[in-house]
Write a structure and sequence with these properties.
Blueprint lengths: L1 E6 L2 E5 L14 E6 L6 H13 L2 E7 L3 H17 L9 E5 L4 H7 L16 E6 L6 H12 L10
Parallel strand pairs: 2-6, 3-4, 3-6, 4-5
Antiparallel strand pairs: 1-2
């Protein structure tokens, strides 16, 4: 993993999705995963299982296949709980197909559904792209904008 910055007291890391084994934090982390192409389901299931074993707190799927990532994550989680007797898994999952990456990235710093076991003062943000796109420069530019006071636009409905 590559440390790409810090915002709101949270360290931000870029994860090479093709090399995630033994690279994920052991606890207290939020994942932002981008997919604009159909994911390799078997590989993603392996990622989900590794993430759960490493105590992920929240998962955000973004991009054209953000909802699919969310669904696949939940399906694997439910299979582990019900078919494999893994026990209760407390991971909040969301999808973000109609929001900009900046909006979704910003939300990672204000996770609202963290279980009581989470250390709110030491949550890490892990970002990855399932399509192999390196988004470190893009995310670094968003961090600079956040530091200058950028906020997601309010939905005018």
């Amino acid at each position: 993993m590559q440390n790409i910055g810090k915002y709101f007291y949270r360290q931000i890391y870029w994860l090479d999705y093709d090399n995630f084994s033994n690279q994920l934090p052991g606890k207290d982390w939020v994942c932002l995963a981008v997919a604009n192409q159909p994911p390799d389901i078997e590989k993603f299931e392996k990622f989900v299982r590794t993430a759960i074993a490493n105590n992920i707190l929240e998962f955000k799927g973004h991009g054209n296949y953000g909802a699919k990532l969310h669904d696949l994550f939940d399906e694997t989680l439910i299979e582990m709980e019900t078919m494999e007797n893994y026990g209760e898994i407390n991971v909040m999952t969301t999808w973000h197909t109609d929001e900009t990456l900046a909006d979704t990235f910003w939300q990672c710093f204000f996770a609202t559904c963290v279980p009581d076991t989470g250390d709110l003062d030491n949550i890490q943000i892990i970002c990855t792209d399932l399509d192999g796109v390196n988004r470190t420069d893009e995310l670094k530019s968003y961090i600079k904008e956040f530091e200058l006071g950028w906020l997601p636009p309010l939905n005018a409905e």
